[in-house]
Amino acid sequence: MTRSTRHLCVLVVEDETLIRWSIAETLAQKGHRVVEASDARGAVRALSSEAEQIDVVLLDYRLPDSDDLGLLKNVRRLSPESAVVMMTAFGTPEVTKDALDLGAYRVLNKPFDIHGIEPLLQEAHDSRSGASTRPH
Amino acid sequence: MLAVSYVQARSVDILDPKDRAGRVLRALIDSAVDGIIVIDAQGRIESFNPAAERLFGHRQEEVVGRNVTMLMPSPYREEHDRYLSRYLETGHAKIIGIGREVTGLRRDGTTFPLHLSVGEMMVGSERKFIGIVHDLTERTKLIEQLRGSEERWRSVIESAVDGIVVIDSNGRIEAFNPAAERLFGYQVSELLGRNVNVLMPSPYHEEHDGYLARYLATGEAKIIGIGREVMGRRRDGTTFPLQLSVGEMSIGGERKFTGILHDLTARVRMEEQLREQASLVRLGEMAAVIAHEIKNPLAGIRGAVQVIGGRLPADSREAAVTGEIISRIDTLNGLIQDLLLFARPPQPKPTLVDVSSLISTTVDLLIRDTALSEIDIQVEGASAPVVADPELLKIVFQNLIVNGAQAMRGKGRIRVSIGASDVACEIRFIDAGPGIPPDIRQKIFTPFFTTKARGTGLGLPTARRLVEAHGGTIHVECPLAGGTTVTIRLPVDRVAASIRADGPVLERGSIEP
Lengths: 136, 513
What we know:
The complex is a heterodimer. Chain A has a single domain, classed as Response regulator (Rossmann fold). In chain A, 40% of the residues lie in helices and 18% in strands. Chain A is built from 5 helices and 5 strands. A 5-stranded parallel β-sheet of chain A has the order 2-1-3-4-5, with helices on both faces. Chain A starts with 8 loop residues before the first strand and ends in a 7-residue tail after the last helix. Residues 132-136 of chain A have low confidence and may be disordered. Chain B has 4 domains: 2-140, Beta-Lactamase, CATH 3.30.450; 162-263, Beta-Lactamase (2-Layer Sandwich); 273-343; 351-498, Heat Shock Protein 90 (2-Layer Sandwich), CATH 3.30.565.10. In chain B, strand 4 and strand 5 (126-135) form a beta hairpin. The longest helix of chain B is centred in the middle third of the chain and has 46 residues, at 265-310. The radius of gyration of chain B is 45 Å and the shape is rod-shaped. The A-B interface holds A 16-19, 21-23, 25-26, 62, 87, 89-90, 93, 106-117, 120 and B 288, 291-292, 295-304, 306-307, 310, 329-330, 333, 340, 346, 508-513.
């Protein structure tokens, strides 16, 4: 399957403002639409109120109001169509395995190469849309 | 003189019953506890008092006129006549005027130990001998009991697991049991009479005489009757911890001290290991918190600098600086990774590993590094597969090879030799560097100890933790010929050796630096 390069709608859930800013800047530059949330509540609100379909959720493991995989479960339930990529500053192999089991596409260790984000999100999106017949 | 006149009187039977001295003498002899026997120069018995009658079971009438040898068992019986005639010829005394322990023969044929003292006298022109016989039966029995008792106590002391040392009031060693010999590496013969402070390291070595004198003067006990943990000093100068309990005793009015010494080396080592484990657990918890608190902002800084750098003209000085900032961030992140790996090593995910090919893979990866471009790494030997986590072993091999290369200042040959026995796979990393001085060699596995200007001091401690997590051991030697040899031994599981090897375990995100 060839990788599509269409513009995505990405929800970035991250409380560290520099990370959120640099991801948003990088994605916006490539023409993607970015929705930002700084905690779990904001993420849930965005998923339930956003008119546009969120293609990919970039989700921090530890947030001010969430530090387990409960939010990931919530995201999967609220928006089963969205691909999820998790970010963590200290991911044990156990957490990584559980996140992947819950349907995350990848668990990304911080810090990371910002230029690698966009291709990774495309890849994550392709992995879901490849399985679905939903027209874009 | 009394005896002489009595014998004289008896033998010629002219004792005057009205003679007061004679009557006293007779009563004395008759009532004596010891046997008194008089013989003539031919050995014939002339007189035999009531105590002798009781001792030998003969009546006086039965023995008078007969040879005294009848009171002796063989071989004395046969030899006595010759003794006597030789004495009469040469005057060479073996028992006369001296006394000794001999054996007596009773009428019923039984024998008994006795002390015989013999005196000589002249009655007119006749030579006579007077023997005083003291029964030793009870004393001998007592001595045997004492000997038995002493043997029992001696065997208790000799076989004791703890060291036992007896000193006198001047601190001189009087007894030193085999356990103490083993503890201190001395032979008892080397120590008897020496000051007990030879078994103590400074400052106790110098202070012990003072302690002892103070105790003897004031009775103020610091250790006697109490016991405490002290350090012992072996013959070779090394020291070890021991529990010392001291008791005091008095033998024949002399004060002595008995020390019982229990070796604490194993216990202290175990306590140290437990302490070390506890501190590693604490360090692990700390590292996890620190890692999160540092990596999160590092990720923010790295991302933001990358975004800003991307907006600067590609060939500008500022763009180059942002590149430098990113490489510093990655170094910092590497340090945190190293700390985490040491403080919280992952649980090994064991598969069957071919050590030889894993080392070759590791070497191939390493020689791409410019810092190792002038290092020649030679891998030799092979072993059966070991059950291990290949990703963790790779880290161990990397650390050791990089250490060796740095020791040789980036130039030279490192030999990696693989050998195997039934129970272990042995991997030696042999470099030709300058070796490690002995004082530093003790610390090389201590976390954060480093001799390098830029080094975390975690390479070897991490290697050791990872090897130990595999049930293996790691040793460092510096042979006299030079260089350093690090030896890793990994257990070979022969049952598991029949299981098929699986692929690599760790998966990593490709965009993580």
